[in-house]
């Protein structure tokens, strides 16, 4: 699977997203989230694929197993390379999601990879304990969800960089660890809490990084993308 940094296309509409992507080459990995998908529908994924981009469709499904299964059958037809659910939906929901994807994938075609969100990278341990009533350390909850996700046929998880090494030890290097909350040392954290640099992500066992505002709001997005890619791929002499 493409291991380039995944650019989060958190834009209000298709035209803004496509004009932002103009200088980016084929094979760039992009993420379509709720904002763009709810505005533009499946057509945005088709248009990105036609232009040669790989697409992570980040809709974070979380509902009863039967509903998630049917939704995944529909999503398989949309043509994304990677989709996701919330691990908090439970093992039956995750297994149903995979069944739904398998059902919607045409014979001979590879089904999209599917990963589970553990704890959002905007969640703190205090919030998790007080609002979700999980009386554990945050990394324990994340690791528990990762194990559950693997046992429920997920290809990997979304987690923060700080949990990736523990998940690699428990679930193996091949299990995807897709990590948002990435910032260059000079950037603002915004609403993200468990942040790390691309170089830290590479060292700590992330298999993919998701980067939004550090690229999309940079004065020079292409330069920011290249700097992040260099740090991530270790071309900076590390
Ligand atoms: O701008 P920023 O780099 O913070 O964007 C991160 C992107 O990753 C957003 O699109 C956000 O929805 C997504 N994401 C996240 N944390 C997760 C899962 C997805 O930040 N656990």
What this model shows, in words?
The chain has 238 residues and is of the alpha/beta class. It is built from 11 helices and 8 strands. An 8-stranded parallel barrel has the order 1-2-3-4-5-6-7-8, surrounded by 5 helices. Helix 5 links the parallel strand 4 and strand 5. Helix 4 runs parallel beside helix 5 and helix 7 packs across helix 8. It binds cytidine-5'-monophosphate (C5P).
CATH fold naming: TIM Barrel
Could you give the order of strands across the largest sheet? 1-2-3-4-5-6-7-8
Structural class: alpha/beta
Low-confidence stretches: none
Rounded radius of gyration (Å): 17 Å
What is the class in the CATH system? Alpha Beta
What is the element string, with H for helices and E for strands? EHEHHEHEHEHHEHEHEHH
How far apart the termini lie comes to 24 Å
Second rung of CATH, namely the architecture: Alpha-Beta Barrel
Summarize this, please?
This protein is α/β, with parallel strands linked by helices. The protein is built from 11 helices and 8 strands.
Layout of helices and strands:
Blueprint: E1 6-8, H1 14-21, E2 29-32, H2 34-40, H3 43-50, E3 54-61, H4 65-76, E4 82-86, H5 91-104, E5 113-117, H6 125-131, H7 138-151, E6 156-158, H8 161-171, E7 176-179, H9 198-203, E8 208-211, H10 213-216, H11 221-233
Parallel strand pairs: 1-2, 1-8, 2-3, 3-4, 4-5, 5-6, 6-7, 7-8
Helix pairs in contact: 4-5, 7-8
Cytidine-5'-monophosphate binds next to strand 8 and helix 10.
